[in-house]
Write a structure and sequence with these properties.
Blueprint lengths: L1 H39 L4 E2 L6 E2 L5 E3 L2 E3 L2 H8 L3
Antiparallel strand pairs: 1-2, 3-4
The structure holds zinc ion.
Length: about 80
């Protein structure tokens, strides 16, 4: 009887340890996903003139395109 109780306690401890390890790994995996989604949700757009990636919040915009500078926007809008 005592042996069975000890076996149950041991099993419980092992399962607790496994779930704890899984939680740690899950945190590591999810934190990795978070940083990736943070990068992709940064919404960086490519300047079609010079190829620089810019944030729409700070970029110069024209015709649904975004530019790193006034100069690039002017180049894009000015036909050659
Ligand atoms: Zn540019």
């Amino acid at each position: 009887m005592g042996m069975l109780l000890r076996a149950v306690v041991l099993l419980f401890l092992v399962l607790t340890a496994i779930s704890g390890i899984r939680r740690i790994f899950g945190m590591l995996v999810s934190s990795g996903r978070d940083s990736e989604s943070l990068n992709s949700s940064g919404n960086m757009v490519k300047d079609p003139v010079c190829g620089t990636y810019v944030s729409p919040q700070t970029a110069f915009s024209a015709r649904n395109e975004f530019f790193c500078s006034e100069e690039c926007r002017t180049k894009f809008l000015t036909p050659r």
